[in-house]
């Protein structure tokens, strides 16, 4: 049985971010970090559920 081989190349270009994109990415990461911290604080209020 013959299995065809497909060769391909992935080209990764490094994009330059505009200051607006950098600011949006920073704010997004900050919001995710705050959300994770909030989730952690809520989980610590109920430690008995963490060890089930």
Can you describe what's shown?
The chain contains 1 helix and no strands. With 52 residues, it is mainly alpha-helical. It has one domain. This is YrzI family protein.
Quick overview of this protein structure:
By secondary structure, the chain is mostly helical. It has one helix spanning 19-45.
List the helices and strands and how they pair.
Blueprint: H1 19-45
Keywords, please?
52 residues; mainly alpha; 1 helix; 52% helix; flat
Tally the structural domains: 1
How many helices? The count is 1
**CA-based gyration radius:** 22 Å
The N- and C-terminal alpha carbons lie at a distance of: 51 Å
For the largest beta-sheet, the strand count, sense and barrel status come to: none
Quickly give the structural class.
mainly alpha
Strand content: under 5%
* Mean pLDDT rating: 82
